[in-house]
Amino acid sequence: MVGQGIRTEDLELCFQKLLVLGGGGGKMEGGAVMTGWKDLPMELLLRIVSLVDDRTAIVAAGVCTGWRDVICLGLTQLSLSWCKNNMNNLVLSVAPKFTKLQTLILRQDRPQLEDNAVETIANCCHDMQDLDLSKSFKLSDFSLYALAHGCPNLTKLNISGCSAFSDSALAYLTGFCRNIKYLNLCGCVRTATDKALQAIAYNCSQLQSLNLGWCDGVTDVGVTSLAYGCPDLRVLDLCGCILITDESVIALANRCHHLRSLDLYYCQNITDRAMYSLANSLVKGKHNLWKSVKSGYNNEGLMNLNISQCTALTPPAVQVVCDSFPALHTCPGRHSLIISGCLNLTSVHCACAIQAHRPVSALPHPAH
Ligand SMILES: [Zn+2]
To answer: What is the annotated signal peptide range for this record (predicted)?
Structure first.
């Protein structure tokens, strides 16, 4: 652990040097006298802690009761993803102290977290807004029930790869955490069913970003509900949702005018109809243009579209989409319209690619 090599005597020596360099002989503003590390002003301590890594911040909280109180009440963001072996115990010990946490990143390479750790977070950290539990295979529905009751202010939740959660537990959570804006359910096949999506649509009208990658039980019923319930949706990942058809894309195009990124990788039921509806969505979105200008929102439409492996699409329909949204590019540097794996779409190009291939004779002659 960082800090293990530093003995108390070394710290005292550093402190003495600090006083000499400061030239104040230990005298601080306002006449207070600094006699040791424990007298470091709270603001200064928090400033120092904000500059060190999370591991060191936890060590610093154990220096003395004064530091513990300041750091535990002042720290709002923490990542324990560096903890490769004992994350569950670390959370059990840290969560009851760091009660003001708003962001907690607990991403794991191999599953360590168990329900009692998440229950402790829910019981102690009621201000939590951003929680990353990705790859917590061992967690069960109890974790989601606990979060529903303890963390009603969640705006961002990542449970990608948490394969044991049921759809009813997620539906339950959305009934309590209604401010969720970012939800990552990638690989949660059991969790992200149409029933769960209907609950999200009903409860989380502010949702802006949803990852449903490889949730292959999702159908048009779920996606259509989302399109109607979450009109502010900006980023939607449906890669590998093999059951969805044009109906899903048409509903999104009609209802979600802020949609900026759509991933349809491997959605092989998608046809040209879906592409034309996306191109038309820009026209519909224009009705809200004035509102967007007033709120300073850029209304350029889609900025990322992945239709890789959507083998039923034809070049004219995809070219219309590419021409409709100036931010979509097929050129190597920008690559925001991804069509790899669609051998019949090789003729689709963005405007800059067409310009690059234009013969020199076609350029206007400079005026003499
Ligand atoms: Zn381009």
So the answer is: none
pTM: 0.85
Query: Rounded to the nearest whole angstrom, what is the distance from the C-alpha of residue 253 to the centroid of ligand 1?
Result: 23
In tens, the pLDDT along 71-109 reads 988 999 999 999 999 999 999 999 999 999 999 999 998
Closest among 73, 78, 102, 100 to 91, alpha carbons compared:
78
Is the CB of residue 93 less than 8 Å from the CB of residue 62? no
For ligand 1, the distance from its centroid to the CA atom of residue 194, given in whole angstroms, is 37
Residues at Cβ < 5 Å from ligand 1 ion:
329, 331, 350, 352
CA distances (Å), origin 54, targets 84, 96, 239: 14, 16, 34
pLDDT at residue 186 greater than cutoff 80: yes
Q: How many whole angstroms from 301 Cα to the centroid of ligand 1?
A: 16
- Predicted confidence band at 287 (pLDDT cuts at 50, 70, 90)? low
Q: Where are the domains of the chain?
A: 102-357
Query: 195 Cβ partners below 8 Å, 6+ apart?
Result: 167, 168, 171, 222
Residue linked to tokens 């019949």? 344
DSSP one-letter code for 288: G
